[in-house]
TrEMBL record:
<dbReference type="GO" id="GO:0051087">
    <property type="term" value="F:protein-folding chaperone binding"/>
</dbReference>
<dbReference type="Pfam" id="PF04969">
    <property type="entry name" value="CS"/>
</dbReference>
<keyword id="KW-1017">Isopeptide bond</keyword>
<dbReference type="GO" id="GO:0051382">
    <property type="term" value="P:kinetochore assembly"/>
</dbReference>
<keyword id="KW-0597">Phosphoprotein</keyword>
<keyword id="KW-0732">Signal</keyword>
<dbReference type="GO" id="GO:0005634">
    <property type="term" value="C:nucleus"/>
</dbReference>
<feature type="domain" description="SGS">
    <location>
        <begin position="254"/>
        <end position="343"/>
    </location>
</feature>
<dbReference type="Pfam" id="PF05002">
    <property type="entry name" value="SGS"/>
</dbReference>
<feature type="domain" description="CS">
    <location>
        <begin position="147"/>
        <end position="236"/>
    </location>
</feature>
<comment type="function">
    <text>May play a role in ubiquitination and subsequent proteasomal degradation of target proteins.</text>
</comment>
<keyword id="KW-0833">Ubl conjugation pathway</keyword>
<keyword id="KW-0677">Repeat</keyword>
<keyword id="KW-0963">Cytoplasm</keyword>
<dbReference type="InterPro" id="IPR044563">
    <property type="entry name" value="Sgt1-like"/>
</dbReference>
<feature type="signal peptide">
    <location>
        <begin position="1"/>
        <end position="24"/>
    </location>
</feature>
<dbReference type="InterPro" id="IPR007699">
    <property type="entry name" value="SGS_dom"/>
</dbReference>
Length: 343
């Protein structure tokens, strides 16, 4: 005959949990050290049918569900226990553990803190409070790391400031942008399900009613309408009131284009020349660079000597001595292992 155990008799030490499709059985040891198998949640449920206002039964059943990993059910039992007995610190511990495992760290921390006030001698509260704080810090760090990877850029024209968020594949319904006179706020639901927040305190006022945004497949474009043609030295203004400067476009050697971006071609050519100058070459390329440099830096006599010797010798002689090659014809003189041919 199967022996049934009242809830108060259950559990000195829990030694194993076996979950089956039909039910969950917990192997326990009673006070005498004998191993017995019993379906504890079922026994407690029957006991609660007889005594539905027993806070301790709910607390014990919450503990059983925690052992079985049924945190959603367990937290409901813990809340029922607390409703019947608000000063039950054990029920608060059970509730906090469930909230922690459901990754609701803020709620868990609040629950454990409340329980610690009721029973400061229970070291479990200190342990779980520390775990919650560490979990919260880790979660915030992950969010910050992800958001820091999202870049934005900006440029300006005479009439507006354009901010580009480098976020791909978002839906228009997942983007909310709010404009005020000196503040921009953007909230974007990323494809990963996370939220991206951008909040900027602007350097100069804008016209919110005429500011717009557009969601594209590769980016989000936000256009801030300027009330006057003022050049922004930077995008954000941290409480300072800068002296406005009239917007003057840099038109020196700019290539005509419908693009809002402009480019100073003189500067670009200078950068290319500097790169070519500093480029490290080898073999024939290095030798040609040397001859070019000698010709470029040489005097008029050096240049005449190089031109005359190269042309008269069919490219086999290159001299910089005008006093020598200037008074004679430079003969063809190929390298020893080569033969000169006229084509």
């Amino acid at each position: 005959m199967k022996q049934k155990f009242p809830p108060w008799a259950v559990v000195k030490v829990v030694t194993a949990i076996v979950a089956t499709p039909a039910a969950a059985t917990v192997t326990t040891r009673d006070g005498g050290g004998c191993s017995r198998n019993c379906n504890i949640p079922e026994e407690l449920t029957k006991a609660l049918e007889e005594k539905p206002d027993d806070a301790q039964y709910y607390c014990q059943r919450a503990y059983c569900h925690i052992l079985l990993g049924n945190y959603c059910v367990a937290v409901a039992d813990a809340k029922k226990s607390l409703k019947l007995n608000p000063n039950n610190s054990t029920a608060l511990l059970r509730k906090g553990i469930c909230e922690y495992h459901e990754k609701n760290y803020a709620a868990a921390l609040e629950t454990f803190t409340e329980g610690q006030k009721l029973d400061s001698a229970d070291a479990n509260f200190s342990v779980w409070i520390k775990r919650c704080q560490e979990a919260q810090n880790g979660s915030e760090s992950e969010v910050w790391t992800h958001q820091s990877k999202i870049k934005y850029d900006w440029y300006q024209t005479e009439s507006q400031v354009v901010i580009t968020l480098m976020i791909k594949n978002v839906q228009k319904n997942d983007v909310n942008v709010e404009f005020s006179e000196k503040e921009l706020s953007a909230l974007v639901k990323l494809p990963s399900g996370e939220d991206y927040n951008l909040k900027l305190e602007l350097l100069h006022p804008i016209i919110p009613e005429q500011s717009t945004f557009k969601v594209l497949s590769t980016k989000i474009e936000i256009k801030l309408k300027k009330p006057e043609a003022v050049r922004w030295e930077k995008l954000e203004g941290q409480g300072d009131v800068p002296t406005p400067k009239q917007f003057v476009a840099d038109v020196k050697n700019l290539y005509p284009s419908s693009s809002p971006y402009t480019r100073n071609w003189d500067k670009l050519v200078g950068e290319i020349k500097e790169e070519e100058k500093n480029e490290k070459l080898e073999g024939d390329a290095a030798l040609n660079r040397l001859f070019q440099q000698i010709y470029s830096d040489g005097s008029d006599e050096v240049k005449r000597a190089m031109n005359k010797s190269f042309m008269e010798s069919g490219g086999t002689v290159l001299s910089t001595n005008w006093s020598d090659v200037g008074k004679r014809k430079v003969e063809i003189n190929p390298p020893d292992d080569m033969e000169w041919k006229k084509y």
